[in-house]
Amino acid sequence: MAVDAQLDQKETDQGACCSDQLSEEEMALRIDEVIDTFSGVKGALIPVLQTAQNLFGYLAEPVLKKVSLRLNIPYSEVAGVVSFYSYFSTIPRGKNIVRVCLGTACYVRGGKEVLQSIQDYLGIDVGGTTDDRIFSLEIGRCFGACGLAPVVMINDHVYQRVKPSKVKDLLVPYRVSEPCGEEE
Question: The pTM is what?
Answer without folding.
Answer: 0.63
